[in-house]
Every structure is written in structure tokens, then in C-alpha cells.
Amino acid sequence: MDPTTIHETPTASPESAELLAAVESQVGFIPNVFAVLAESTPALAAFVGLNGAFGESTLSAIEREVVQLAASAENGCSYCVAGHTVFARNQAIDAATIEALRCENDLPDPRLDALARFVRAITQRSGHDCEAELAAVLDAEYTRGQVLEVIVGISVKTLSNLASNVFEIPVDDAFLECAWTPSSNHKEVQNHVA
Predict the structure, then answer these.
(1) Which domain holds residue 141?
(2) Would you say residue 52 lies in a domain?
(3) Looking at residue 129, what DSSP letter applies?
(4) Is 25 a member of any domain?
(5) Count of domains in the chain?
(6) CA distance 117 to 153
(7) The predicted structure's pLDDT at residue 4
(8) Helical (H) or strand (E) element with 115
(9) What is the C-alpha to C-alpha distance for residues 102 and 81, in angstroms, rounded to an integer?
């Protein structure tokens, strides 16, 4: 396979370059996932738009990171788990919670644990047979509207997780200290599904 192009604003189409410039002004650099998605302006625009919509949800910044880390770990995405570990630290999420998300274990906070379990269940089962997890997240005082916002967050991560896994996007230097590899058990499950 040809190497993946990691675009910068000069190598991207004018439309993608404009989106990349906006990302750079917001984040301080252009993360590789955006740079790879810039190969297709519609893909990059969808990712930027979904990220913006999820950012406007009624979920807290911590809850949004829980959604993104849980989905990324469930999808076995090394790139996104590393990046969102850094973002979770930036939101002052405690180390035990971050480690639990990275290892797909129970979270110390029961409400966030219900959220992570719900994310894992619907990511793994494509939304089927998730009644117990839905009931638990609603019992944890999340609203039905917030459940839909969680689905938006999972959609954002599914797009970046799939692109990252397909193109083996290299982890940015800014995320390297939080590098992550799926557990051997996770790889066995993925191989069994394939």
C-alpha cells in the first residue's frame, strides 16, 4: 500500500486547507487524523462538523472524553486512544479513570461507569441488545437527549477510528507519551469477528 499522505495546508485542496487552518488555530497544530482526512474535503468537513456538534452537546467536557476514550478503546484505535488520553488529562480527569478507560475496566465513578459501559455496548453491538446499558445510563440521570448526543460522539470517533485503523495513522509527537496498543484479548476478539 502506498504511504498515507499527511497533508499540510499547502498540500491540501483549498477547501481542506481552510478547514485545516481552522483546526490549527483551535488546537495549536494539525493532528495527523485531520491531516489524513484532508485527502477528501467531504470526509474532513464531516469530521470537523461532527466534532463541533459534539462539542456543543450538553455533556460535560469530562463526559465527552469518557465517550471518546471508551469508543476508541472499543474500536481498538491506538491513534485516538493516545490523543484522547492527552485530552482527558487536559480536562483533569483522574489517572484511575483514564487507566480504566484505556483498559476497558470499571470506572471509579458510578455515573461515568454507566456512561462508559453504554458507549462500549452500543459501539460493540451497533446499538442492538443494549437495553440494560440504556436503562443504566438513564438511571444514572442522563437524559434521552444526552443519549442521542452520546451517539453523535460515537459517530465522531467511529469516523476517526476507522480512518486511523485503515490508514495506520501515525501518532502525533504531542500524543506519543500516551501511546496505547489494544490488549491481546481485544485483538483476539477483533480477529474472531473478522
Answers:
(1) 61-161+172-181
(2) no
(3) T
(4) no
(5) 1
(6) 14
(7) 85
(8) helix 110-125
(9) 7
Residue 80 CB burial class (10 angstroms; 0-12, 13-18, ≥19): buried
| Closest to 47 measured CA to CA, from 16, 26, 74 | 16
Kindly write down the DSSP assignment for every residue of 148-191, as one continuous string: HHHHHHHHHHHHHHHHHHHHTPPPPGGGGGG-----HHHHHHHH
Q: What is residue 103's DSSP assignment?
A: H
The answer to the question of residue 101 being in a domain is yes
Per-residue model confidence (pLDDT) at position 164 = 97
Q: Tell whether 111 is covered by a domain.
A: yes
pLDDT tens track for 23-79: 999 999 999 999 999 999 999 999 999 999 999 999 999 999 999 999 999 999 999
Query: What are 137's three cell numbers?
Result: 445510563
Residues of the chain with pLDDT under 50: 189-194
How many other CB atoms are there within 10 angstroms of residue 16's CB atom? 24
Report the CATH number that the domain containing residue 89 is assigned in CATH.
1.20.1290.10
Average predicted confidence (pLDDT) for the chain: 93
